[in-house]
Amino acid sequence: MKKVLSFLILSFFFFYAVSNAVFAGTVEEEFKIEGLISPASPKALKYALENKLEVKVIDLNLKSTRTGWPVLRVQFDSMVVSKENIEKVIGEIEDPAGHKFKVHHGPLLANAPILDEEQKAIAILGDTAEVFPNMKNPITDKVASVSRGEKLFVDNCAKCHGLSGNGYGTVAHGFTTWPRQLWAWNNTGPETDGYLFWFITNGRSDMPPWGLILSEYNRWDLINYIKTIKNPGE
Amino acid sequence: MAKKIRDPRLRITRRIKKDQVFKVKVKFDHPSFTGLGIVDDETNPIFNRAIPVSFIRNMFVYYGDQLVSRFRMSSAIADDPLFTFKLKAVQEAPVKVVFVDNQGEKWEVSKKIKFYT
To answer: What's the domain range around A182?
Structure first.
């Protein structure tokens, strides 16, 4: 009985010593990684890390992480490799496109506090862009209005917006920006009336303020016609 | 170390007459980026967070002492953007353009308007 007991005690100490020697220094650590931009990045990171250091990459979680940053989970022997060493090596790795990696520390500063100059500007010009008024189209006879609008369009708008409304009119080549393609307004409802009326009246960029040239009645005719212009390819 | 961002450059036509509408071009080499990467293109959504977001938040245009325009931008702005806008030459005064990015850093450039006679 004594022999069995001493054997059990000895074998317990033996296994304890062996397991301590094998697993004592093995730890798992997580790093938030900056610089994972292209599909080649994760492969480059894993390959370089496993080759340069004695670490095992367990997992690279790209999206479902708490902070949004990709999380790299590695296993290493703390007697051989330190956490600081791993961070240093990660900072030295480059992916094939030349993107550098970095271990992310601390929260992300997405938007710094508003500066005094910005505060003053907001106080002068307001915080939001132009509010387009809600307007009601006063014209009831749409068929006649569309034919009047077509004539006005050909005379005034087609030079820049193109006869088909594609935005590539004959004189538009020297403009700062290409004129709007008008098919987007095809068959739109009354909710776009205020927006279109405001733009035609006030102009924008190279487009003149047609409110100075066309009567209000003519501008509504134009809007009615613009809403009938279709993409010829459809 | 992050690359130093150069000051913006401003171009205005030399011969400006009084009440003329003239074009102002401002080029700013700023590495605006959404901060998103496409690493895993097989699953949906395909974007992951790659680097800290960086973009020009505001651009202010001053003519003389007066603030004449504010351009408000988002992370969708291109890197190294070129801005073109028009002003009416009502006085001989400097045109100043100020940029502020989302990190709160500020850059400015100015040029004096002198009337051509």
So the answer is: 142-226
Query: DSSP string of chain A?
Result: -HHHHHHHHHHHHHHHHHHHHHHTTEEEEEEEEE---STHHHHHHHHHHHHHSSEEEEEEE-SS-SSSS-EEEEEEETTT--HHHHHHHHHH-B-TT-PBPEE--S---SSPPPPHHHHHHHHHH-SS-PPPPP-------HHHHHHHHHHHIIIIIHHHH-TTSSS--TTGGGSSSPPPPGGGGTT--GGGHHHHHHHHHH-BTTB--GGGTS-HHHHHHHHHHHTT---TT-
Identify the CATH number of the domain in which residue A98 sits. Answer: 3.30.70.100
Which of the four CATH numbers 2.60.40.10, 3.30.200.20, 3.90.1150.10, 3.30.2310.20 does domain B9-35+50-112 have? 2.60.40.10
Q: In sequence order, what are the residues at sequence separation of 6 or more whose Cβ sits closer than 8 angstroms to the Cβ of residue B98? A: A117, B58, B59, B60, B62, B106, B107, B108
Question: What is the ipTM metric for this complex?
Answer: 0.83
Cβ partners under 8 Å of residue B3, min gap 6: B31
Q: Is A178 on the interface with B (CB under 8 A)?
A: no
Residue pLDDT, tens place only, A82-115: 889 999 999 998 888 888 898 998 777 778 888 9
- Shortest Cα distance from B53 to chain A (angstroms)? 6
B41 interface with A at CB cutoff 8 Å: yes
Any B CB within 8 A of A115 CB: yes
Per the prediction, chain A carries an average pLDDT of 85
